[in-house]
Amino acid sequence: MTATPTDRFAFDLHATDGMARTGVIHTPRGDIRTPAFMPVGTAATVKAMLPESVAATGADILLGNTYHLMLRPTAERIAHLGGLHRFMNWSGPILTDSGGFQVMSLADLRKLTEAGVSFKSHIDGSKHMLSPERSMEIQKLLGSDIVMCFDECPALPADRDRIATSMQLSMRWAQRSRDAFGDRPGHALFGIQQGGLEQDFRAESAQALTDIGFDGYAVGGLAVGEGQEAMFGCLDHATGVLPVDKPRYLMGVGKPDDIVGAVKRGIDMMDCVLPSRSGRTGQAFTRRGVVNLKNARHADDPRPLDEGCTCPACSNYSRAYLHHVFRAQEMILGMLLTWHNLHYYQTLMQGMRDAIAAGRFVAWEADFHAVRAQGDI
Ligand SMILES: Cc1cccc2c(=O)nc(N)[nH]c12
Ligand SMILES: [Zn+2]
């Protein structure tokens, strides 16, 4: 993460290799090297990590959530205390999701209308509503650098009529989000493409968003249980219809091989809870695949988790130790494996950025899959 003396938001594309791209997003709070992976800091914290540790893994940008922060401690309180960056001690860029997706997956008693969504908090049952206008207001109170449009993500499987109706509602909400966002130099508003797995609806959504005009374009509505093959099949057409000169953000993805396949298909930014959440459950991602520290076979293993990794977990601890603190349910397990997983994800992103810049992404991807096929981890 580096600070750029700029009050503007701009995307500089440096190189392409096939559909894959590498570049830099300049923001007033620092540069974002793409392709970028964004650790998820849902409740103003990347669980089990200090912000300085997250920065040490190589992350340039974090993700926050409108839904969680509006319920607790409220956006107004965070604004009163100086905004989300100050509140959570992260000086780099922050992207916030707009809340609709989380309402549909977490809240109770949801009622969706053209106006927006009313719901009851999953924390204390209090009543709330979200609309494009309220979501823009909350994200402005938080002070996030990249604001997401308020959208509706249909649960899959869904029939074409349901997908079309939902996508068209999201496009009307995108216009209302754009109108409510206003003119905020140095802050970006991203549109969210919907349309399920339907190529015609994806193209229609991309055209609608492009006509409105955004600083970046997300591919929404995926990572909702469709599976990798269907997701890649959708990305094969959904990414190319988005503007080439703006960042493309695939929401909620994913496993390491999902990420590689998404970058191969023209995606520049991704976020996922997987590296942090699975770290807390004893799952470690390595170049050769997943290591489950719960497994008793690690009990006497003096080797590091991954000999090729330079993170604190791999530099200073054995698999035997990690297995022990997992079984003892010690907090350090989540700290060490989250740090390792986030470090591994950032190493993956750096590897792809270098490979794309050198025009050798195909060879890099082949090596990525070959090493993982070796097993014995
Ligand atoms: C977080 C996330 C994952 C997956 C999909 C989506 C989506 O379609 N829209 C939003 N706002 N967020 C999403
Ligand atoms: Zn490591």
Task: Describe what this molecule looks like in 3D.
With 377 residues, the chain is α/β, with parallel strands linked by helices. The chain is globular. Helix 11 packs antiparallel against helix 14 and helix 14 (331-357) packs antiparallel against helix 15. The chain has 15 helices and 16 strands. The chain is 42% helix and 19% strand. Strands 4-14-13-12-11-10-6-5 form an 8-stranded parallel β-sheet. Strands 1-2-3 form a 3-stranded antiparallel β-sheet. The mean pLDDT is 96. The chain has helices at 51-56, 66-71, 75-80, 84-88, 100-106, 132-142, 160-181, 199-212, 228-238, 256-264, 274-280, 312-316, 319-327, 331-357, 361-373; strands at 10-17, 20-27, 30-34, 36-38, 62-65, 94-97, 108-112, 117-120, 127-130, 146-148, 188-193, 216-219, 248-250, 269-271, 283-286, 289-292. The protein binds 2-amino-8-methylquinazolin-4(3H)-one and zinc ion. Zinc ion binds at residues 305-306, 309, 311, 313-314, 340, 343.
Brief account:
By secondary structure, the chain is α/β, with parallel strands linked by helices. The chain is built from 15 helices and 16 strands.
Low-confidence stretches: none
Distance between the termini: 32 Å
Q: Main sheet, how many strands, which sense, barrel? A: 8 strands, parallel
Q: Give the class from helix and strand content and strand pairing.
A: alpha/beta
> Which strand order do you get reading across the main beta sheet?
4-14-13-12-11-10-6-5
How many helices in DSSP terms?
15
Q: Which kinds of small molecule does this entry bind, naming each only once?
A: 2-amino-8-methylquinazolin-4(3H)-one, zinc ion
Shape: globular
